[in-house]
Write a structure and sequence with these properties.
This protein is mainly alpha-helical. The chain contains five helices and two strands, in the order αβαααβα. A two-stranded parallel ribbon has the order 1-2.
Length: about 180
């Protein structure tokens, strides 16, 4: 039994010694390619379209909020009039409280809806880019492509940056 253990150890050692040269050669050929997803989102036609849609919704929400704020200011002016009756003053105070509540609700709803829309639009773009990346990786037989910011890449050789290539393919796919 002792002889069998020695034979196994010798075989394992030979595998490690002879196998390391093979592994080392493969490790030297291995490269990690990367993309900058934020750049693709910002510069692609699809990303620009999503940004424009989001900005349009933001402007609509801001317009509604501005209108309510102006109504509140007008009621405040009405309340400051010395000629206002007690009954009218009470009605205006109730009205201003209602408008302030409406303003806060609209502000919260707008923020929630805009955040949700931004997540949806970004998620759609990311999913579509991932499909392009997977196809590119498969076509070019690349072992691995990571997202630059998520992977925590501090420094990398730009020759492994596929961002511009993926950006072109993705923008072309969206037209």
């Amino acid at each position: 039994m002792n002889r069998f253990k020695k034979l196994l150890i010798a075989m394992a050692g030979a595998c490690v010694i002879f196998g390391m040269g093979t592994f080392k050669a493969k490790a030297e050929d291995f490269a990690v390619y990367y993309i900058d997803m934020q750049k693709i989102i910002n510069e692609s036609s699809q990303g620009k379209k999503a940004k424009a849609e989001l900005e349009s919704k933001i402007k609509k929400a801001e317009s509604k909020l501005k209108k309510l704020a102006e109504e509140i200011e007008q009621i405040k002016k009405d309340l400051s009039s010395p000629l206002i009756s007690k009954k009218t003053k009470q009605e205006k105070e109730n009205e201003i409280q209602t408008k302030i509540l409406q303003y806060r609700q609209l502000q919260q709803e707008s923020q929630k809806l805009l955040s949700q829309l931004q997540r949806e639009l970004t998620s759609k773009i990311v999913d579509d880019v991932f499909k392009v990346v997977k196809q590119y990786r498969k076509t070019h037989r690349i072992p691995m492509i990571v997202e630059k910011n998520e992977a925590g890449i501090i420094s990398a050789d730009p020759k492994y940056d596929l961002t511009d290539k993926i950006l072109k393919l993705y923008s072309r796919a969206g037209k």
